[in-house]
Amino acid sequence: MQKTTNKRGAFIAFEGIDGSGKSTQITLLKQRLQREGIKCYTTCEPTDSPIGSLIHQIMTGRVLSDNKVIAALFVADRLDHLLNPTNGIYAKIMDGTSVISDRYYFSSYAYHSVDMPMDWVIDANSQSAEILRPSVTIFVDVNPDNALKRIAKTRFHPELFETRERLVSVREKYFEAFEKLKDVENVLIVDGEKEEHILEAEIWEKIKAYFAH
Question: How many Å apart are CA 127 and CA 87, to the nearest integer?
Fold first, then answer.
């Protein structure tokens, strides 16, 4: 039986370079919340909306586009993710459902600032940040070489940003963004090289207070 509450739900955003293992941690956290009777909803970016579907086509090479256009599409997809009248996450959180998202605006800050000024990317996403900041952003940190090994086991063809050079740069940009926004964002950095259930328990100990009723 799920617990009910008049409080707003928690918003947990997982971040990391491709192959970090964040998707596994999201699944484990969702399972724990379900065992605890906490109403939760898992989602991801890019979404499966028409805008998100176009991004997926670009990322897999079926549609060609400039990186500035890709960055702008992520801005639009994120706003729709928040405000869509059918399944927007802002309304879910305000209604008491906790939301776990696989990526949010820190992904844009890190991936897109490799090609353009980070301040531009942050400004472009400012509406999303004003509407909804995560209760906590969990960054699952891994060595890019290990991340590429994981990717190779799960994909027949790498996606647009899945090269070693790119992942090294993106990881550096994540830490640059965390430092730049340390006064306004709550970021938890965890070691993604740990065994997945050990890491899951560590994450839960650090974030369970966000789900207290």
Answer: 19
* Whether the predicted pLDDT of 52 surpasses 90: yes
Beta bridge partners of 79: none
Those residues whose C-beta lies under 8 Å from the C-beta of residue 8, and which sit 6 or more positions away, are: 93, 94, 95, 96
Q: What is the pLDDT of residue 68?
A: 93
List own/partner pairs for 122-125 with CB under 8 A and 24 or more apart.
122/177, 122/180, 122/181, 124/71, 124/72, 124/75, 125/75, 125/78
If we measure between CA atoms, which residue out of 194, 141, 138 comes closest to residue 171?
141
Question: Measured between alpha carbons, how far is 163 from 180 in angstroms, rounded to an integer?
Answer: 25
User: pTM for the whole thing?
Assistant: 0.91
Per-residue pLDDT tens for 142-162? 999 888 888 777 665 555 456
User: What residues contact residue 175 under an 8 Å CB cut-off, 6+ apart?
Assistant: none
Mind listing the pLDDT tens digit for each residue in 168-184? 999 999 999 999 999 99
Main-chain phi, psi angles of 111, to 5 degrees: -70, -40
CA distance 56 to 61: 9
- Residue 115 pLDDT greater than 80, yes or no: yes
pLDDT of residue 148: 83
